[in-house]
Amino acid sequence: MRQLMLACAALLFATVSAPSARAAQCLGIAPGTSARVAVGTTGRAMLIHVPHGYTGRAPLVLLLHGSTGTGAQMLAESRLAETADRHGFVVAAPDGGIAAGQGYVWNIPGVPTVTGKLPGPGDPNDVAYLAAAIDVLARQGCADRTRVYATGLSGGGRMTSWLGCVAADRFAAIAPVVGLRAGNPSAADPRFPDPATCKPARPMPVIAFAGAKDTTNPVQGGGAGYWQYPMRRAEARWADLNGCRESLAESIELRGYTNCRHGADMIAHIDPQAGHSWVADNEAMWQFFDKHHR
């Protein structure tokens, strides 16, 4: 009898514990740690952070570095891994496809990088690479395809905006940081976005963060050739694309549009004292992401 009871207990333990042990693996990365892993057959790797308490397919946030930066630098600067550990999402921090300075820049077709050069046909396709990364993480059971989000700093914020324009079918929401755009500056008048360069396949929820004292990507517009039009025009264009019908009561730090199609609000947080840095409120960002599924 005692042997039978022990056997039953062992069977029960195996039934309960084995799935948990299998589920707690994402590309062999232990929960609560980060590792650099190859992405399928792309020939490129990225830094992945798996949160504490990970038990299986989780929301995924792509974290895109600023121009001439790296994914590792961005993960450290943003402290988004700490937010992921609190809320249970995976963070993927890749490197851009074009080497520049001590790091990389992102390939946004038709827009010069910080080096002043336009990406050419021989440069890596970063949209395709990031889409492949999502596919790999989903197939491996790491990520929930319906809960994929993107955020990024400066050039990574512009790349995040670009993903919203051209890969909306992949993302549930985006959060550009000091980098909100709604398409390339118009060749006819760079003070406005070119509507032909941003045609998302679905309404895209957007939460953006900026610093009022940013002189690199000024909220009032101007700056380098890749920037030009004011942030407000980007906000208004996203509101139009998302079919928003109401403006928020505006304050110094918060503005935007709501009552949009499929709940795809356009929210902008402006820090009046901040410049060109990671000005995002990570908790507010995650609360916004967490409301949206694709």
Helix content: 25-40%
Low-confidence stretches: 1-23
Rg over alpha carbons: 21 Å
Structural class: alpha/beta
Q: Approximately what portion of the residues adopt beta-strand conformation? A: 15-25%
Please outline the major beta sheet: 10 strands, mixed
N-to-C SSE string, H for helix and E for strand: HEEEHHEEEHEHEEHEEEH
Ends distance: 53 Å
Tally of DSSP β-strands:
12
Number of DSSP helical runs: 7
Strand order of the largest sheet: 1-2-4-3-7-8-9-12-11-10
**Average residue-wise pLDDT:** 92
Shape: globular
Reconstruct the topology from this structure:
Blueprint: H1 2-23, E1 33-38, E2 45-50, E3 58-64, H2 71-78, H3 80-87, E4 90-94, E5 98-100, E6 103-105, H4 126-139, E7 143-153, H5 155-166, E8 173-177, E9 206-211, H6 231-241, E10 246-247, E11 254-258, E12 266-271, H7 282-290
Parallel strand pairs: 3-4, 3-7, 7-8, 8-9, 9-12
Antiparallel strand pairs: 1-2, 2-4, 5-6, 10-11, 11-12
Q: Could you walk me through the main structural features you see in this protein, from its secondary elements to its overall organization?
A:
29% of the residues lie in helices and 22% in strands. The chain contains 7 helices and 12 strands. It has a 10-stranded mixed β-sheet with strand order 1-2-4-3-7-8-9-12-11-10, sandwiched between helices. The protein is globular. Residues 1-23 have low confidence and may be disordered.
